[in-house]
Design a protein that fits this description.
This protein has 232 residues and is an alpha/beta fold. The chain has one domain: Alpha-Beta Barrel (TIM Barrel), CATH 3.20.20. The protein has 6 helices and 6 strands, in the order H-E-E-H-E-H-E-H-E-H-H-E. Strands 1-2-3-4-5-6 form a 6-stranded mixed sheet. The longest helix is centred in the last third of the chain and has 20 residues. It is globular, with a radius of gyration of 17 Å.
Amino acid sequence: MDLDRKLAILADAAKYDASCASSGTDRRDSVGGAGIGSTEGMGICHSYAPDGRCISLLKILLTNHCQYDCLYCVNRSSSNVARARFSVEEVVRLTLDFYRRNTIEGLFLSSGIIKSPDHTMEQVVRVAQTLREVHDFRGYIHLKTIPDASDELLRRAGRYADRLSINVEMPTEAGLKQLAPEKDTSAIHRSMGRLRLHIDEAREARASAGGSTGGSAVGSTGEAPIRVIPGA
């Protein structure tokens, strides 16, 4: 599969992750030549730096293959969607190419879970590490961490990323059991605690200044919404 096709699939698959989404708006586009601009599409999202600047990020998944079958997720294992997978080198090349064209100011990278949480997280971290250490990339990096990934991988992620986030998945344990029975609420909570610890450690070392965010699928089972408070 060529790189353009992978980008189309994995940018579209990433648009459902709300961790760096802008506030809602009416759907408008200029398809067909009527007007200019669009509020739809995928691939580029906007986020905010700690100093309040709005920055454009390349928003993609490393892969939309996933071993889990969460009913609320379009990329679940049973979903009939086109699948693709980037190599670490392809994500690095895309990020640098778009950055040099002044199209983006950074990268938002998430992934479906393949083989194991550690295997997936290691690939995600390698992207950030290669950008920082090999190419001296100084743009913004937001990594979506994988629940139950090892402490060492979370520590490495905090060393290279400006912001880390993790999906809470569902507001309640009952909802998670109903829609994602393969996942464990306690494992997610443990990962959130370890993530907070490593962000604080990295901040003290001046390696990761952005903070953390979280996201969940609210309303799928009728639970009352919960408020997710991002880290400072």
